[in-house]
Write a structure and sequence with these properties.
By secondary structure, this protein is mostly helical. It is built from 13 helices and four strands.
Amino acid sequence: MEILSNLTCKYPIFLLTGFPGLESFHSWISIPFCCLYIFALFGNSMILIIVITQKNLHEPMYYFLSMLSATDLGLTISTMSTTLSVLWFDVTNISLDSCIIQMFFLHGFTIMETGVLVAMSFDRYVAICNPLRYSTILTNYRITQMGLLMTIRTVVIIVPLLLLLKRLSFCRTTRLSHSYCYHPDVIKLACSDTRANSICGLIGLILTTGIDTPCIVLSYIVIIHSVLNIASPEERHKAFSTCVSHIGAVAIFYIPMVSLSLVHRYGHSAPRVVHSMMANTYLLLPPVLNPIIYSVKTKQIRKAICNLLLTK
C-alpha cells in the first residue's frame, strides 16, 4: 500500500503538451494560432452584435445562428488561455480543479453546439416542409425553451461526469496529450477504477451525439424528399441553397470530431504531433469557419456586416 501511494496522487498537477518535437518553434507556431483565435473572436462577436442590433434579423434562423456564434465564442475562450500559455510562455502545469473547470466549459460548449445544430436543422425542416406554419411553430417562446433545454441537458450530462473525476487517484506521470484538458485524455492517466466514469461517459455520448446526429440526418432526409417533389428547378435550387450554410456548419463540426476520435482510437503509431494538430483543428475549425460560411452564403448577414463596417 505504501508503494502504491508513492506511485499515485490524489490531487495531481497535469502537464499540458504543445507540439511534441517542435518545442523550439512554439513561438512561431503561436502566430497563426493567435491570428485564428482573434479571427474567431472577431467573427463570432460580429455576428452576435449584428443579430442583436439589427431588427430585421430578429427571426428564428438568425436567433439560432447567434446561439451558434455564442457557443463558438465559448469554445474559443475555453481553450485559448492554456494553448497560448503553452506556446508563448511554456506554462504547462495545470491543477486537477483548473482542469475540471476547463473541461466543464470545453465539453459543455461542445454539447451545446451539437444541440444548436439540431435546432438549426429543425428550423430548416419547418421552413421548407411547412412554410405556412413557420412563424407559429418557431415562436420566440419556443426558441427560448429550446435554448434552456440545451443548457439544462449540458449541465445534467457534464456535472456528474466531472464530479466522478474527483474520486480518482492519478499516476505520477500526468502528461496530457494536448494543450488543454480533454476528458478521455485525463481518464487514461487514472490509476484507480474508472468503470463508473466510462459508463457515465458512454451515457453522455448516447444522449448527445447518439441522439443529435440521427436527428440531423433524419431532418435532411425529409427535407431532400420534400425538395425533390417541387416541380420547378428554380424553386428546388432556392430551397437547397437555404440549407448550404447549415450543412457546412455540420460538416466542419463533425468531420474534425470523428477524425480526432479515430486518431485517438487507432492512431497509436502516428507521431504525437499529429495528435496535437488534430486536437487543435477540432476545436479551432468551427469557430473560425462558421462566421465565414454564414457571411458568404447568407445575403442578409453579409449585407448587415458591410453596413456595420462602413458606418464605422
